[in-house]
Amino acid sequence: MGAVIDADAPGPQSASSPTTEGTDGPADSPSPHPLLRAPGEVRVAVIGAGAMGAGIAQVAAQAGHPVVLVDAQPDAADKALATLRQTFDKLVAKGKVSEADAKATLGRVTPHTTRDMSTVPPVALVIEAVVEHLDVKRVIFRQLESSQPSSTVLATNTSSLSIDDIAGEATSGHDAALHGGTSPAMAHPGRVIGLHFFNPPPLMALVEVITGDDSDPAVLDVAAELMRRWGKEPVRCTSTPGFIVNRVARPFYGEAQRMVEEGLVDPATVDLALREAGFRMGPFELTDLIGQDVNLAVGESVWRQTGEDPRYAPTDFQRDLVREGRLGRKTGRGVFEYADGRPVDAEPDEALAGKLVGGPLQTDPVARTLAMLVNEGVDLVHRGEATAGDVDTAMRRGTNYPKGPHEWLAEIGAETVRAQLTELDRLYPGGRYRASEAL
């Protein structure tokens, strides 16, 4: 393993400007960007040793990087490393990883307990994966900006917060109050990007590479390439609420909840209908697995960030579940009740499912869901927030959907989708079912 260097070596430089120094090639041949040097020479810091942070640290360490795993809670980083050891013990026992590789990977991870980001050693890349609280992230990023080399790429694993809100000026919130009413923008927002991994990071291939208004395109290119080298499949997106996956997926849950709320069908039968349409899990069993509170929080975040757009309005059905503590498997009761981790009251009506699918639109859970998914995917591309290819890849890889929205659009046809949305809008006026201008 080569010597560990920070991103500034051999001297301060822009995060987007590859050094031209080097002795292995022609004098005018640029050296790779610091992030793309040999992994052993590129140190990575992961801030937050929870499930996501520990998983990202594992991915980086398995790619060959020295990793500093940072957490403010005493022993949290050490416990995360101990859990990683247990994970690798199992992988070795199953023959999926050699004992030597496991030992080498674990040896690259260094736990570090601190609330003071200035104590984090110089690194080439920071990936922050702490709690989804804007003020907390703003403080962390400003400490990192002042203490890390100028070339260090600063990434957040946020699933719902705006990159621009993290890097930009703030006139509200705790951080703004601490600064007398206005919290300043970061001095160099070009190196601030989003790298949104999916849970669990070692197993999920998708990473959303998010650009803020001021993110440097060259930094985004390098980060996307680094993700490919980590074995991931990066997609690009602007810092739109929910990014690609958490925005386009909203109607998968919302349509099902509205149909059940209205008494048109029961949850287990909706789940069956969508499984038979190719989805790996139905919306109710999936949200019980995710946690109704977690899913609602994401939905509420997208709804608020879009100015309470009726397309994303949370349902009373899900709010009641959360209010009653019916959070899903983790509480033994959500939409369904669970015993030993298995639902005991999720028996679908197979005959009803067969009757609903292909029947009137109002009571067809598959047609309603697909029309809304297509509408979301098309509209996101229409706004210039991602490409059609990246939207389809994100939904297949991030949610295991059988197809992407544009693939369904090609099958169903824009005219049919538009007619379906028009009919739903007539039945349920208010804006939720307004069709994208691109249809």
Overview features:
alpha/beta; eight-stranded mixed β-sheet; single chain; globular
Commentary on this structure:
- With 439 residues, the chain is α/β, with parallel strands linked by helices.
- The chain is 44% helix and 10% strand.
- The chain has an eight-stranded mixed sheet, sandwiched between helices. A two-stranded antiparallel sheet has the order 9-10.
- Helix 10 crosses helix 14, helix 11 (283-290) crosses helix 12 (292-305) and helix 15 (365-382) crosses helix 18.
- The radius of gyration is 23 Å and the shape is globular.
- Residues 1-27 have low confidence and may be disordered.
Q: Summary?
A:
44% of the residues lie in helices and 10% in strands. The protein is built from 18 helices and 10 strands.
Please give the structural blueprint.
Blueprint lengths: L43 E4 L3 H12 L4 E5 L4 H18 L5 H9 L1 E5 L11 E4 L5 H14 L5 E4 L6 H5 L6 H5 L13 E6 L8 E6 L5 H13 L3 E6 L6 H4 L1 H12 L5 H10 L6 H8 L1 H14 L10 H8 L14 E2 L2 E2 L6 H7 L8 H18 L5 H12 L5 H8 L1 H14 L12
Parallel strand pairs: 1-2, 1-4, 2-3, 4-5, 5-6, 7-8
Antiparallel strand pairs: 6-7, 9-10
Structural class designation: alpha/beta
Oligomeric grouping of the chains:
single chain
Mean pLDDT: 91
Order of helical and strand elements:
EHEHHEEHEHHEEHEHHHHHHEEHHHHH
* Strand order in space, largest sheet: 3-2-1-4-5-6-7-8
Provide the helix percentage: 40-55%
Indicate the radius of gyration in whole angstroms.
Answer: 23 Å
State the separation between the terminal residues, measured CA to CA: 54 Å
Largest sheet properties: 8 strands, mixed
Count of alpha and pi helical runs: 18
Strand fraction equals: 5-15%
Shape annotation: globular
Uncertain stretches of 5 or more adjacent residues: 1-27
Number of strands: 10
